[in-house]
Amino acid sequence: MRKACDGLILRVTDVGEHDRALVLLTADEGKLYITAKGARSVKSKNASLCRICAYVNLELYEKNDKYWLAEGSVNNGFFGLCEDLDTFSLATYIMQLAEEITGEGTDESEVLRMALNTLYVLEKKRCSREQAKATFELFAADHSGFVPDMSTCSICARADYPDGLWLDVMNGALICDACQKKRSGGLASSETDEFQTRNLLLPLDSSALEAMRYVASAPLQRIFSYGLTDKQSLDLLCRASELYLLHHLERDFDTLKFYKSLKKFNK
């Protein structure tokens, strides 16, 4: 029995001496695990299909309760991502995140669409890499069901923050600076050690908070349509979105480590 499906290749792994294993994200069936027999050979007709970040149409057949690749075509290869190593490494992190937050046999049309939108804005440089990364991380947190409560201070219910505010990572809430100083006995607020995960507080400002609120409420076709002109606000947004997501997923990502190592190297 054969079937055709459109999907985004999230991961490609070499198997044995000749084959490749693919993780394909589809809209209707979530993740599919596929073996591409002989795809490591340059003579294979399917070699060009086995590329991470490629949006493809694949014809599959089932054998021994597994999916095997028969043939296919590329809908969008996102080849422009390969022109810049930093951009491509960020794209691979987005693919690993998409794999982490999706399941098998589930409707993953929203994640697929968001992943494709993110690859598009990265390839076309419609926004900075930092903004694209933070936006997908916040989307991933929302999709996974642990987006923070960003309405008011969780202690005093204040909705404005003239003196600054903090993101309480583990409780998924906001704390205004005044309440944090009261909690700390009048001492200036400071971030706790990263290993003290239950008390991890991350600083935000009003611009970063508004960006987070926008991402949480915007339709997918408009989710990247915001701008942070102030570098400090963008840095706060990026740090908060990354650490918030990683702490709630309770894991790190090798692709993220590589992306960050490139940033340090290029400084």
What would you note in describing this structure?
- With 267 residues, the protein is of the alpha+beta class.
- It contains seven helices and eight strands; from the N terminus they run βββββαααββαβααα.
- It has helices spanning 85-101, 109-124, 129-143, 177-183, 206-217, 231-249, 254-266, and strands spanning 2-15, 19-26, 30-36, 55-63, 66-76, 165-168, 173-176, 201-204.
Reconstruct the topology from this structure.
Blueprint: E1 2-15, E2 19-26, E3 30-36, E4 55-63, E5 66-76, H1 85-101, H2 109-124, H3 129-143, E6 165-168, E7 173-176, H4 177-183, E8 201-204, H5 206-217, H6 231-249, H7 254-266
Parallel strand pairs: 3-5
Antiparallel strand pairs: 1-2, 1-4, 2-3, 4-5, 6-7, 6-8
Strand arrangement across the biggest beta sheet: 1-2-3-5-4
> In whole angstroms, how far apart are the ends?
53 Å
Order of helices and strands: EEEEEHHHEEHEHHH
Strand content: 15-25%
Summary?
With 267 residues, this protein is α+β, with helices and mostly antiparallel strands. The longest helix has 19 residues.
Protein traits:
267 residues, three-stranded antiparallel sheet, alpha+beta, single chain, five-stranded mixed barrel
